[in-house]
Amino acid sequence: MAIDKIEQNPPRQVGRAPSPPLGCFYNIKLFVLCHGILQLSQLLVSGYLKASISTIERRYGFTSQKSGLFAAFNEVGNTVLIVFVSFFGSRVHRPRFIGIGAMVASAGVFVIALPHFLSGPYKYSGFMNSTKNNSSEMCQTKDLFNSDWQGQNCSQQDTIVYEEVFPILLLGQLLLGIGGVPIQPFGISYIDDFASKRNSPFYLGILFAVTVIGPAFGYILSAFLLRFNVDIDKLSQDEIRIDRGDPRWIGAWWLGFLVAASFLFLSSMPYLFFPRTMPKQETTTTKHNPKLEKPINVEKPKPDQMQELTLMQFIKSFPYTMMRTLRNPTYFLVVFGQINLAAMLAGLATFMPKFIEKQFTLTASFSNIMIGGVIIPSATLGIMTGGIIMRRLGLSVRGSALMCTVAILVCIFFAVPLLFLGCSTQSVAGLNISKENNFSDCSGPCSCSDDAFNPVCGSDGVEFRSPCHAGCKTAVFNGTTNNVINYTDCGCIGQQSIPSYAVPGDCGSNCTHLLLPFMVMASLTCCIASLSQTPSFMMILRTVTPEDKSFALGIQFMLFRVLAFLPSPVLYGKAIDTTCIRWGGKCGKRMACQYYDLDKFRLRFLGLQTIFVIGGLVCFFLSFVFQNKTAPKQQHIDQQKSLMEKEDPRI
Questions:
Q1: C-alpha span between 88 and 276 (Å, rounded)
Q2: Contact between residue 116 and residue 169 where contact means Cβ atoms under 8 Å apart
Q3: Bridge partner list, 464
Q4: 356 has a pLDDT exceeding 60
Q5: Which of 18, 340, 493, 498 is deepest in the core (most CB within 10 A)?
Q6: Distance between CA atoms of residues 385 and 207, nearest Å
Q7: Are the C-beta atoms of residues 191 and 28 closer than 8 Å to each other?
């Protein structure tokens, strides 16, 4: 009877969510797990996109500057809408906004893959050169430079598709940026609001470390999928006549976007079930104590004037509020220190695979394995180590500033030697070498197309842009696959009285032995620089008032986008384009670069990295100097807060 009575009249739990099935979602640890998975999915897209940049660039003939704009364009949507994130702050259902935004981002990723399905098969130089009867790129005396030259069929449909590709890619990036607006600011502020003060740095450290793994998965996924031909869905295996080692190879870049978009959509679903508020972690960690196991204290908005403003009033007051926030010296210096590091990271993440690919003559697939399997895990280790150090030592704002300064200073000592670890451009006929027999004269009667790009390596170690430019008159085919395995009777190779030959593919830079020391130094640089990630974020969270936390994070991410993520890839791309010594061509239009001055490429690409690291060092050092002057006052404030927390554990 007593049991029946209790079941019929259960005690009312004032303030507790009415839906028992959702009880598991009132747990900040579960939110941290779900947010880690979501950001892993989001950054999987980011990593995969950056890993595929060089492939998309070759496929559609973009310059590096144009590729950089495409890679950074998602920041446009972020920048425009970040003001609204700052306005809504904690007054909206943050988990629900995160979930809806992730769904919009997923739609944008599907749009990015769309150009592949709108365009025809990939046509490269010598595209139809698969039989002995078709020798369009061999040296022949008759004039073959006409509209029927293989690989240069300039139909109106192809021209229209090429013109429409870039706007479609930008639209997909715009949607991806808009959907990603609420994910990180709302997620970080939500965790910091409901996690304990002791565990908050640890959770954020785990979160940052897990999200770094996302790009690693993106690079590894691209390394696997780029092994498949771009037209695997349009051509049979017998119709694909080039292999992964061919400089003209294009991998299935679009396939990974379909996989990543699906993963992103699925990871957005749990956010529809998280509550708007949840109990502070101190109250949930105490077990079986009815006095402390109080109902959820639904936190009402504080009587802050910012909470009472309308949207238009908020927009009008936004510049003033932003300047008030930036007048906080520690906040200003730390944010601009992070901006320097973010600008460096954005440029390196976008073009480092291309740098390794060109510098050491590797495939795009192998380069992405190096990034995703070596460099990014090193950065993850650094971020986790930074969070552990903060938790173990209980670093104050001043200690965090010192830790960031020391980490970046040590990072510089490992970054500078990278400028000298690299290769020079291989010997290419007509570009960077000259011999007694003029290459243009010996291949002049061959009627070679200036747009031809089918590199061959001569027996004398000199590379030519095509068999025609090498003066080769005969091709030797594989009897089984019907692919070319050798070119003979090449008039521009060696002495004309001696039989000469060339093999398909480039000659390479012949310095792959430098790859290992380069990867070791680059990994150490990333690991040490990443030690500053968690301390710098905690400095921001601890130097602004609680009611301005969401706003301060919104300002921070807005400045990241405007000053780092948006311009940096374009700047790096422009620097890379200035090192090009031979541009490709198709249908009278300039296409992607075929050959770079690798020494200039290395110095300008990694030189920008060094400049940004030094800028970050200056900002963190100045923040330490400022904190050193204000430490006594801050210590007194911390002591007062500690006494209040002891008197009332719910604070």
A1: 13
A2: no
A3: 456
A4: yes
A5: 493
A6: 13
A7: yes
Residue 481 confidence (pLDDT) above 60: yes
Contact 64, 351 (CB under 8 A): yes
Is it the case that residue 149 has pLDDT exceeding 60? Answer: no
User: Token match 């905690």: residue?
Assistant: 538
* Percent helix, strand and coil across the chain, each to the nearest 5: 65, 5, 30
For the ranges 64-68, 161-165, 360-364, 643-647, which has the lowest average pLDDT? 643-647
Q: What is the mean pLDDT of residues 402-425?
A: 88
Helix axes 567-577, 598-647, angle to 10 degrees: 160
The pair of three-digit structure tokens given for residue 524, joined into one six-digit string? 């150490």
Match domain 20-277+323-425+512-647 to its CATH number in 1.20.1250.20, 1.20.950.20, 1.25.40.10, 1.10.287.1260.
1.20.1250.20
CA distance 401 to 421: 32
Place of tokens 């192998």: 366
* Domains of the chain, residue spans: 20-277+323-425+512-647, 439-504
Residue 63 C-alpha from the chain's centroid: 18
The Cα 82–Cα 76 span in angstroms is: 10
Cα angle: 108, vertex 312, 315; to 5 degrees? 70
Whole-number Å distance between alpha carbons of 338 and 401: 12
pLDDT tens per residue, range 523-548: 898 888 888 888 888 888 777 776 66
Give pLDDT, residue 436.
45
Those residues with Cβ within 8 angstroms of residue 353's Cβ, 6 or more apart along the chain or in another chain: 50, 51, 53, 54, 219, 364, 367, 368, 370, 371
Cα–Cα distance for residue pair 226/50, rounded to 1 Å: 13
User: Cα 238 from chain centroid?
Assistant: 35
Question: Bigger pLDDT: 132 or 28?
Answer: 28
Residue carrying the six token digits 């291989």: 426
d(CA 651, CA 644): 8
The arithmetic mean of pLDDT across residues 109-131, rounded, is 74
What letter represents residue 379's amino acid? A
Q: Provide the token pair at 72.
A: 């950074």
- Angle made by CA atoms 573, 382, 224, in degrees to the nearest 5: 55
Compute the radius of gyration of the chain from its Cα atoms: 29
Decide which of 399 and 133 is more confident.
Answer: 399
What pLDDT is attached to residue 93?
Answer: 78
- What's the Cα-to-Cα distance from 504 to each of 135, 459, 477, 554, rounded to whole Å? 14, 11, 11, 53
- pLDDT score, position 575: 92
Q: How far apart are CA 80 and CA 77, in angstroms?
A: 5
* Tokens found for residue 280: 């502070």
Between CA 284 and CA 289, with CA 286 as vertex, the angle to 5 degrees is 110
Average pLDDT along the chain: 76
DSSP state of 360: T
Is the Cβ–Cβ distance between 362 and 423 less than 8 Å? no
| Structure token digits, residue 274 | 């998280």
> Tell me: the pLDDT tens digits for 225-252?
888 888 888 877 777 777 777 778 888 8
